[in-house]
Amino acid sequence: MEIAATGAGRSRIELHLEVERQDDRAVALLSRASGLSRTAIKQAMTRGAVWIGRGHDRPRRLRRASHRPRRGDRLHLYYDARILATEPPAPTLLSDQRQYSVWYKPAGLLSQGSRWGDHCTLHRWAEQHLSPQRPAFTVHRLDRATRGIMLIAHGKGIAATLAGLFQQRRVEKRYTALVHGRFPETPRSIDTPIDGRPAISHVRLLRHLPETDHSLLEIRIGTGRKHQIRRHLQQAGHPIVGDRLHGHGDSGWDLQLVASHLSFVCPVQGQRLVFELPPSLLPDPLAQ
Description:
Order of helices and strands: EEHHEEEHEEHEEHEEEEHEE
GO molecular function, one term: pseudouridine synthase activity
Strand content: 25-35%
Family: Belongs to the pseudouridine synthase RluA family.
Organism: Sedimenticola thiotaurini
Shape: elongated
CATH architecture of the largest domain: 2-Layer Sandwich
CATH superfamily of the largest domain: Pseudouridine synthase
CATH topology of the largest domain: Pseudouridine synthase
Distance between the termini: 54 Å
Number of strands: 15
Helix content: 10-25%
Protein name: RNA pseudouridine synthase
CATH class of the largest domain: Alpha Beta
Radius of gyration: 22 Å
Largest sheet: 10 strands, mixed
Structural class: alpha+beta
Pfam family, one: PseudoU_synth_2
Number of domains: 3
Number of helices: 6
């Protein structure tokens, strides 16, 4: 058994336990080994912080409190009281296409989890709240601070198909951003490499707010580098309002970047579908 605990009251525990006998449930084994209550272990399971693996097999999340591991299985507990106590902001279901669903992801909700939990992710929310219930798979990602439209697949086959559409650039994505300064009237393509790799963003002005000297922009991207839009607009001299990493920070503002449009030929129906956010969910130049 390997165990590491930090923080007052053992608030953060990482434990790796090899099962020696097949006579007890995972909850009881982890409770005894960690010193945590069974209730705490069950919560950690529900929130994606308990894993099980065997040999060279890739570990998977273990959620069933009634599961009895076999001899030779390895249990992994990644317990962080702060992470597990976090309550995710609620997303909004925009369309249920049965094999996949379309959501509005608010800022703060994650596109993917970690070994310490996945309860603050969009796909886990979908699994727990959609009716009828279905498995959920992440197809593409948005940064934690970015809000907007996301697809969630409800089967491995459709997940691979939809992910292929994104990889082949057959999904049209548009973003809306509120930036500092007056952006030029003429549409502009920004092609500064990011991390040594080609990157291109196509930007056009929607409106300029002279009273605040902000500009509302529409952006289409031809590549998908990390923080591409945020970095390109900062390099162009028009950082996004509320960008604490690549901009001015702007106390009182959240990141004013929204994935506002998604369109593609549906692989199930064979027709083009268009999803757009209503104006109430777009950056509001007069919000502050």
